[in-house]
Design brief:
Layout lengths: L9 H21 L5 H14 L5 H26 L16 H7 L7 H10 L3 E6 L8 H11 L4 H12 L11 H33 L12 E5 L13 H22 L7 H19 L10 H13 L1 H4 L4 H13 L3 H17 L5 E7 H9 L14 H14 L7 H6 L3 H15 L6 E6 L4 H13 L6 E7 L2 H15 L2 H10 L1 E7 L1 H7 L1 H21 L6 E7 L13 H8 L2 H9 L4 E8 H5 L5 H16 L27 H4 L1 H20 L1 H8 L34 H11 L3 H4 L2 H7 L1 H10 L1 H15 L3 H10 L2 H10 L5 H15 L2 H21 L8 H21 L13 H9 L3 H11 L25 H29 L4
Parallel strand pairs: 1-2, 1-8, 2-3, 3-4, 4-5, 5-6, 6-7, 7-8
Helix pairs in contact: 1-2, 1-3, 1-40, 2-40, 3-6, 3-7, 3-43, 4-8, 6-7, 8-14, 8-27, 9-10, 9-18, 10-13, 13-14, 15-19, 16-19, 19-20, 20-23, 22-23, 23-29, 24-27, 29-33, 30-39, 33-39, 34-35, 36-39, 36-40, 37-38, 38-41, 40-43, 42-43
Length: about 950
């Protein structure tokens, strides 16, 4: 028993380790050659060696550190949605958005019609997506949301303690069903909050127009989701899965109708209709294939027949339901009952027979492949040399296209993914819910041909007037060429006619790939520039009379476009004041949409209180420009205090040369960084090993020799793990790099913009947060961990018996990886730019002691894993893997796969053939078991790696989001 085991509590251990961090930082200030993080890592390693700290101590410490991180995050979440702000209490009813919207309508003839039109058009959609960002356990997320909903910090403590007792690592297996269920919880909270907002609109209208309020059908905000409908890059979602999810959404909508419908004689007819429909939907779902099944043709046939047989009873659009609700409201005598029916009618009018409106998504290449079957044009549509021939070919096809019949048999037989998705949508519109057109998102749209080809497919399957074809512009090239893509499509009369009929031009902007390739701040500048050019293009083409829908698809982290300071700033960062004002000046009605992704995004709607606050912030954002100047939201981002910067006269738009040069410099630096071999080495060496799988998407590719594939360029990994790895390595390059060089070019103007520009200062606050959770000393500690020279230097100086040989073995394995030269050059590049940024913005905050400690602890664990791994006994190559290759995989933190292989090579159970008589002399076989290897090597490695991943989860909470 160690003397120190009983004398140092988790609190004392934390205090001691924090002291090491603080002392090391002070020493580093005097010694420029000292890395304070690596020094603390070494100090922790020595305490491990002396038995002063063990795994149990860390587990107890982790509970304490988790509690602190979760408590802080709950407080930040509460403040983020505005629950701590002056609008929390809602004591002044006149300050609420609905009342102020009514008050903003001048009293004159037609004032009710003005208000009805204003709130009768959907101006914003909350879209829940299933990107693989489910980075924390579902139970922890629920406790965190409940905690953030409580105003009293003391009341939060039991919930935080309960969450802190659980692991921070994501749930072990996350299926698409799990993602759908979590999205539904968030969507249900959002729908309830929208009902509350619509009810407040109706109440405000009733006070002003007591004789006409029952005519009001408010649809200001909507809820949508693409969970189960996103097939971009996925082959594991069957059309029967998508159909089942839409039926589940329909079931929830009818559940909601029956739950909210007053039990009065006036509602008897509409209640019977809803009950009959719900029963029919449940019968359809009973025979629906389950997720992961490869259903037989008989099972598919049975499901298809159930959908068709029950379609009329299940209802196929909301028309009959809305008519029944209108009749019930006319017949109801009690005003409270009429109000309840009016709120319910608003939700049905907005969402049809769905709990959340569907968004379908696939890739441009899938569209091209589907249309290629009916064209004879060679080459790629994005090839400039082939551009005109492809556009001419698709125009000729559109001239002659005729709709074909779609049935479930043809759907089951279809092999082309884009055609199959179009047919799935056709069947959903025909048999499930055809109330509203559905969104059809196309990733990697780089040519107008893609839009025209999608239109041809839509006409071919008879759904062109019910499909909102939407290009996604995300890559640097797409943001540059996006206006040409739209212009090519608009030059085609078929596309213009289609937009006129559908009444809306819809575009999607992505912040993940754009942010990681050109830098997050530069990406938002290019996206804003494209927004403004789209406005000009619509005016030039006589399309100002149709609606422009802009779907901002961003993550929940700063590297992927989510502003860290508040939901108000987040919404204004995505839809800047200037762009919105120009739309209004051009007479273009705009519908804004924003994504909320995975666990982190769903948290904003994780409880009724959070959802209500989030909806209130969205409503403030949407209607800030509709209020009279003296009725504006004084505390809202679009209306900064009068003494501060003026959003209406933002100097960043006056100094166009500065903005263009600044963000061009950021982009150039980031593009150079992305091409740096050291950057790929930084991301790909052991970065993927630091993070758990966080979604249902298929896992990453494997190399031919086993283990994770080597990353030679960032494009070989998705944006989410790319960003998550930067968070875990302690330097958010895609939010910071390039700003130093850009600021150095005009430091005085840079300072003025930070002070005077609402737009620029808001964007820079994103970089400020990135700086506060990053530290070059932390990054350098990880880079030095991959440098054999550092390990050899430790070998020269170590005093511990046996440690020298361990250090030399690690160094030799690292030499075979040959990463150090490129990583050192990379670090020099990052440092030079950081020094420029630090000079221009000396007020940047540095990483907290607690977050620094987490990195140091994890590095110490990684080092101990490597020290332990070098003692693995020699073995004959197994599955093409030698002991040397296995050690290299340990260095890359491919631990789970390595341990699984070692379990096979060194089994813990005896050979089952021992003692059996096989009728001839026994041949050679292993005798005994390898219990010593398991208890002394493999099990400790397993436990230490679990602690490494546990720290990654805590770092996620400190940073504020995953990926």
């Amino acid at each position: 028993m160690r003397e120190t085991e009983r004398s140092r509590s988790p609190e004392e251990l934390e205090t001691h380790l924090r002291g090491l961090i603080e002392a090391s930082r002070e020493q580093a200030a005097e010694d420029p050659f000292r890395n304070p993080v690596l020094a603390v890592t070494l100090a922790i390693t020595r305490r491990f060696d002396r038995g002063e700290i063990d795994g149990d101590d860390l587990d107890a410490l982790f509970v304490r550190l988790r509690a602190q991180a979760l408590a802080d995050r709950a407080g930040r979440l509460r403040a983020y949605v505005g629950l701590n702000g002056p609008q929390d209490a809602r004591a002044d009813a006149d300050a609420a958005v609905p009342n102020r919207l009514v008050a903003a309508v001048p009293q004159r003839a037609g004032d009710f019609e003005t208000f009805r039109e204003r709130v009768g058009r959907t101006a914003f959609a909350i879209v829940f997506t299933a990107h693989p960002t489910f980075g924390m356990p579902r139970a922890v997320a629920a406790l965190l949301a409940r905690s953030a909903s409580l105003a009293d910090p003391a009341a939060r403590e039991p919930l935080i303690a309960e969450a802190a007792a659980l692991s921070t690592r994501p749930d072990p297996k996350i299926s698409l069903d799990d993602e759908f269920d979590q999205a539904c919880v968030a969507a249900n909270h959002a729908r309830a909050a929208l009902d509350g907002f619509n009810g407040a609109l109706i109440d405000a209208a009733r006070r002003r127009w007591p004789d006409r309020w029952t005519e009001l059908v408010p649809r200001p905000l909507a809820v949508a989701s693409w969970v189960g409908c996103d097939t971009d890059g996925r082959t594991d979602i069957g059309w029967w899965d998508t159909l089942r999810y839409r039926l589940e959404s329909k079931r929830m909508q009818f559940d909601r109708v029956l739950r909210q419908l007053p039990r009065i004689p006036a509602t008897q007819v509409v209640r019977s209709l809803a009950e009959s429909a719900l029963s029919a939907v449940n019968r359809q779902l009973t025979v629906a294939p389950r997720l992961g099944e490869k259903p037989s043709l008989e099972a598919v046939h049975r499901f298809a027949l159930a959908v068709i047989i029950e379609r009329d009873r299940a209802q196929t659009d909301a028309g009959a339901l809305l008519a029944g609700l209108a009749a019930a409201m006319s017949a109801a005598e009690d005003e409270a009952d009429r109000r309840a029916i009016a709120v319910l009618r608003a939700g049905v009018a907005t969402h049809g027979l769905s709990n959340a409106l569907p968004h379908f998504r696939l890739n441009a290449s899938q569209i091209h492949n589907a249309v290629r079957r009916v064209t004879d044009v060679e080459g790629e549509p994005a090839d400039p040399a082939q551009r005109r021939s492809h556009l001419a070919t698709i125009h000729a096809l559109l001239n002659d296209v005729a709709p074909v019949a779609v049935d479930f048999g043809a759907l089951a037989a279809e092999r082309a993914s884009a055609a199959r998705l179009m047919m799935t949508i056709a069947q959903i519109l025909k048999h499930v819910d055809g109330t509203h057109p559905v969104r059809f998102l196309i990733a990697e749209t780089e040519t107008g041909y893609t839009l025209l080809a999608a239109l041809w497919l839509a006409r071919h399957y008879g759904i062109a007037d019910r499909l909102e074809i939407t290009p996604l512009f995300e890559t640097a090239e797409a943001l540059e060429q996006g206006i040409r893509v739209l212009d090519d499509a608009l030059r085609n009369p078929h596309w213009r006619q289609y937009l006129k009929r559908i009444g809306r031009l819809t575009v999607q902007f992505g912040y993940s790939d754009s942010g990681r390739y050109v830098g997050q701040l530069a990406a938002t500048f290019w996206i804003e520039r494209l927004r403004l050019r789209i406005t000009e293009l619509m005016v030039q083409n006589g399309l100002a009379d149709i609606e422009l829908a802009i779907f901002d698809t961003h993550g929940e982290s700063i590297g992927r476009g989510a502003h860290p300071t508040s939901l108000r700033d987040r919404l204004a960062y995505l839809a800047p004041e200037d762009a919105r004002a120009k739309n209004r000046a051009a007479g273009i009605r705009v519908r804004l949409e924003s994504s909320f992704q995975g666990t982190d995004g769903y948290l904003l709607f994780g409880s009724p209180a959070l959802a209500e606050a989030s909806v209130a912030r969205v409503a403030e954002h949407v209607y800030a420009l509709d209020l009279a100047e003296d009725d504006a939201f004084a505390d809202y981002a679009l209306a900064e205090p009068k003494a501060g910067p003026d959003a209406a006269r933002d100097p960043v738009y006056a100094e166009t040369d500065f903005a263009l040069e600044f963000f061009t410099a950021v982009r150039q630096e980031m593009e150079t960084l992305v091409e740096d071999p050291g950057y790929a080495a930084l991301l790909g060496t052991f970065g993927p090993g630091l993070i758990d799988r966080t979604g249902s998407r298929p896992v990453a590719r494997q190399s031919d020799g086993g283990g994770p594939a080597l990353i030679t360029h960032p494009r070989q990994m998705r944006a989410i793990p790319n960003n998550a790895i930067l968070q875990q390595l302690g330097y958010l390059a895609n939010a910071l790099h390039g700003l130093g060089r850009a600021a150095e070019r005009a430091p005085d103007i840079f300072s003025e913009m930070r002070r005077d520009s609402v737009r620029f200062s808001r964007a820079f606050r994103l970089a400020q947060h990135a700086a506060s959770v990053g530290d070059l000393d932390v990054l350098r500690a990880y880079i030095d961990t991959l440098d054999p020279a550092v390990w050899l230097e430790r070998a020269r100086r170590t005093q511990k018996d046996g440690r020298r040989e361990e250090l030399i073995t690690v160094a030799r394995s690292l030499e075979r990886l040959d990463l150090a030269p490129s990583l050192r050059r990379l670090f020099g590049r990052l440092t030079c730019d950081w020094l420029g940024l630090q000079a221009a913005a000396p007020d940047l905050r540095k990483m907290s002691v607690r977050l620094t400690l987490l990195h140091a602890l994890r590095l110490a664990l990684i080092h101990r894993i490597w020290f332990t791994a070098v003692h693995i006994p020699s073995f004959r190559p197994q599955a093409g893997v030698s002991r040397e290759q296995l050690l290299e995989r340990f260095l890359r933190l491919d631990i789970d796969a390595c341990i699984a292989l070692l379990d096979e090579i060194f089994p813990v159970t005896p050979d089952p053939t021992l003692g059996l008589n096989f009728g001839e002399p026994a041949g050679p076989r292993d005798v005994g078991t390898y219990e010593a290897e398991h208890t002394g090597l493999f099990d400790p490695i397993r436990r230490m790696f679990a602690q490494v991943r546990e720290i990654s989860g805590m770092i996620q909470h400190e940073v504020g989001a995953f990926g």
